[in-house]
Please model this.
Amino acid sequence: MSLCIGLTLSPTWLNGDGWRKDDSKAEQLLSSDYYLELAKKAEASKLDFVFKPDSLFLNKEMINQSPGFSSLDPIVLLTSIVRETEKIGLVATMSTTFSEPFTVARQLQSLNWISKGRIGWNIVTSIEGSGNFGKSSMPSSKERYDRALEFTEVVRKLWESYPNESLTMDRESGQFANKDMISAIHHIGDFYKVEGPLNIPSYCSKSIPFFQAGASNVGRNFASLVADACFAATPDMESAIELRSDLQKRANEHGRKTEAIRVLPGMHFFLGETHEEATLLYKNAHTHLTTEQRLGSVKRILGVDLSHLPLQSKVTTDHIPEVFTNVRSKTHADLLRRIIVKEEPTLQELLLKPEVIGSAHWVIVGTAEEAVAEITKWFEHGALDGFIALPGGSVRSLNLFFEKVVPLLVEKGLFREEYTGSTLREHLNSNKSRGRHPLD
Ligand SMILES: Cc1cc2nc3c(=O)[nH]c(=O)nc-3n(C[C@H](O)[C@H](O)[C@H](O)COP(=O)(O)O)c2cc1C
Model:
């Protein structure tokens, strides 16, 4: 059993003031070279995949100070990376709320052909952007997940509608493909009506791996039904253990094997040659955030305005709704609620939490050795099957990950030295096949 490791292609290390550093190459941020260099580094380190998050709206508030969410389209960007890499998996984020199943099925399958089986799909239901797609407001969380379930079912059916085996290419008889093996899907559901078949065959009989992010009750149910891997926001080990065991239990209830679903927390790291250097890096990465901006973040996450409270006053459950009905992400709202219930922090303390200033991810601040010790601890406690690396603070911290953290994990036998397969599915399966997880 070894770790499954992905690297984000969202430039998290440029957040805050990171982009202002001399070596940030911020001017190249919208070039494909920038990401190609990263993907090549990730491939040289034998990572399982690079991962392109995405959103379909611009946060004008953030863009004033950092790259935020302005980014290249995942399919277009990954297409430019495919032909210059050979082994590494490429995971594209595509929204089920704002896309059409036929288009998604076709684009992903096209990239799967071009990459020879290295594509994965990060299925998101989106948190914002309705105005860009002719809608006056975001559909409810339940509707978005109902739609996501039907959407993925249609995409699967489309991939199966034109199977690879139907390509007979028999020169002698003149049969290119066996039309009897290709069929329309005649899908009529609550949200979609799709005739099919897809106009591109499947690259192979193994389906494209599904990733998912969103851990509300409905989100977990969706993940446990369809996902091969979950990108998780788990700020502490306890929440990761709870999420992993719950997803495994739900997957079992849906008749899937425990190992069918991998939990990959986002790991936001600030690395230095010394602990002190790393601590300073972490501190500096967030000093630019004003109290007003932090309060704005709380409002976006919880849907409540706490700006009337004095900084020294305690924040308790009295200040937040009992049930979140209309928040952007229940996952993030619940994580922040956990802190308020558990710690009753002062407003000032609350405004320092990673759940407020970051994205509620697991934060590691320290040396490469300290990071490896922490990763090992989470792994041994059954909190993860791997992680998605979200480098923070500086390019130097990102480089320390490749130069020190990955080699140390290999040395400890926790990560592969060489690729044993060449498709993303093979990479994911190779992690599981090298023995059992210590806790499974
Ligand atoms: C760790 C994490 C990463 C996410 N990444 C994206 C993303 O890249 N793009 C996007 O549109 N939504 C993203 N989302 C939002 C989810 O797809 C989902 O729409 C949202 O969390 C609401 O679902 P929930 O109520 O289950 O949390 C992410 C959510 C989480 C928890």
